[in-house]
Amino acid sequence: MPIWLWIVIGIAVIAVIVFFIMGYKFFKLSLDKNSNVFASSESDNSGWSQYEPQHSKEMAWLKAQSFDEVDILAGDGLKLHGHYHKNPKAKRAVICAHGYHGTWSDDFASAAPWLFQDCSVLLIDQRCCGQSEGQYYTFGAMESEDVILWTSWLDKMTAHHLPIYLYGISLGASTVLICSDRTLPSSVKGIIGDCGYTSMEDIFASLAWRWFHIPGYPLVWFVAFWCRVKGHFSLYRADARKALKHSLLPVLLIHGTGDDFVLPKNSQQNYDACSSKKELVWIKDASHAAAHIKDPKSYEAAGEKFFAACEGNANGSR
């Protein structure tokens, strides 16, 4: 064998080893609950800091409300925790799924007063967050299965009498959008996704290059390997755009045009893929997960319009 071929083989072997190591590092840094490589970068977003004083007051208000603390078991045996606010005059019920390294009281503090007026609200702790068990984020692959279980729980709690909506922000948005092609209780009438990404594969490839100057491919392939081996899930299951191609429910997508974490094109691509009734609302200049606090009037108007459209159809959208 010529020496040049040995050199090529040697370089290829070294490259594979390097990407295996990088893939594991990226897996641990981005998915382990004890790391927050993306969350720290997200929190540095200068567009969000201006809202901190108002947001702190909204969080204090939300935490002061009355909740039933509830638990269910995930399909893989993890304990999942939720905070249920029952409204005796509710017109509907909403499941709220927070984002990456978020909390139920952080991500929904701004929108909660609006929702609490007419809704019973279940604010869940996503797996490996808050009081829910788990070690790894799965970017919607397993979280979507958890939401489906929460949906059945809420349907029973409301005695099948109230329309139910799935509402998520960031990772939570992609989580609920992944549920769009699943068989859910007939009481589920629609899905609201605020600043969600298209898929775990896409967001990892994008952030790896934009933030760390690491080629998205082949890195994502090696991250997918570690997801299987260590996380026991498929990276490719976390794909909102794929689910939306076969959506069974009306979908409302909301995104801030100033989002530099999950770029606005993600919601545009999700909208383009969606096969069901759909609407896309842009909130001008809003940074990541700040659409409601930036423009609550437009945000709530879009939500109320969506509720009215979904509930005006006696047969739902199935």
Give the gist of this structure:
This protein is of the alpha/beta class and 318 residues long. The chain has helices spanning 3-31, 37-43, 46-49, 52-63, 104-107, 112-118, 143-157, 171-178, 200-212, 216-231, 240-244, 265-273, 291-294, 296-312; strands at residues 68-73, 79-85, 92-97, 119-124, 164-169, 188-194, 251-256, 278-283.
List keywords for this structure.
16% strand, 47% helix, 2 domains, 8 strands, alpha/beta, eight-stranded mixed beta sheet, disordered C terminus, Rossmann fold, 318 residues
Describe this structure in words.
- The structure is a single chain.
- By secondary structure, this protein is an alpha/beta fold.
- It has helices at residues 3-31, 37-43, 46-49, 52-63, 104-107, 112-118, 143-157, 171-178, 200-212, 216-231, 240-244, 265-273, 291-294, 296-312; strands spanning 68-73, 79-85, 92-97, 119-124, 164-169, 188-194, 251-256, 278-283.
- It has 2 domains: 1-31 and 200-232, no CATH class; 48-199 and 238-312, 3-Layer(aba) Sandwich (Rossmann fold).
- Helices cover 47% and strands 16% of the residues.
- The protein has an 8-stranded mixed sheet with strand order 1-2-4-3-5-6-7-8, with helices on both faces.
- The longest helix has 29 residues, at 3-31.
- It is globular and about 80 Å long.
- It starts with a helix and ends in a 6-residue tail after the last helix.
